[in-house]
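Thread amino acids onto this structure.
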């Protein structure tokens, strides 16, 4: 549904089978939805976008190879960016982008299992915790430049009192 002029309108009557793992974002008024295709989180992820009263897949086949959890979606002029914990890679952070007709890995797989992504002025950012439970966690913020993750500022953000 779309909210316009103080009213909700139905985009289409098309049903997408999703479970509790889904995200939605839009770019230039076009909504995209990322979802896990089955009732179990160990099934493939898929992205669809609303186009001419239909919901075509962004790519004709699924792109995750194993379990995919903790999903996130951001769309900008570079296309959709998908972040997930990849079960086929020890649940490490994987971020991919649909560009040039296929899904491409965005930089290296990150050493994280707890992150979010955001795009500002077509630059992709991620922030995530690192460290260990006993010593405490710090936050890292990185941005993607020439398909390499670069640190933004100092590595290891703490709360205001430095603890």
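Threaded sequence (163 positions):
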């Amino acid at each position: 549904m779309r909210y316009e002029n103080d009213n909700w309108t139905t985009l289409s009557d098309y049903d997408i089978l999703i479970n509790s793992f889904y995200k939605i974002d839009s770019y230039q008024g076009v909504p995209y939805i990322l979802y896990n295709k089955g009732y179990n989180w160990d099934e493939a992820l898929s992205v669809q976008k609303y186009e001419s009263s239909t919901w075509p897949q962004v790519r004709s086949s699924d792109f995750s190879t194993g379990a995919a959890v903790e999903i996130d979606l951001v769309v900008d002029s570079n296309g959709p960016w998908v972040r997930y914990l990849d079960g086929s890679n020890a649940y490490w952070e994987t971020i991919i982008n649909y560009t040039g007709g296929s899904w491409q890995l965005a930089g290296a797989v990150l050493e994280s299992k707890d992150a979010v992504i955001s795009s500002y002025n077509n630059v992709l950012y991620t922030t995530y915790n690192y460290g260990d439970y006993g010593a405490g966690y710090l936050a890292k913020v990185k941005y993607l430049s020439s398909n390499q993750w670069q640190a933004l500022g100092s590595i290891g953000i703490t709360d205001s009192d430095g603890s």
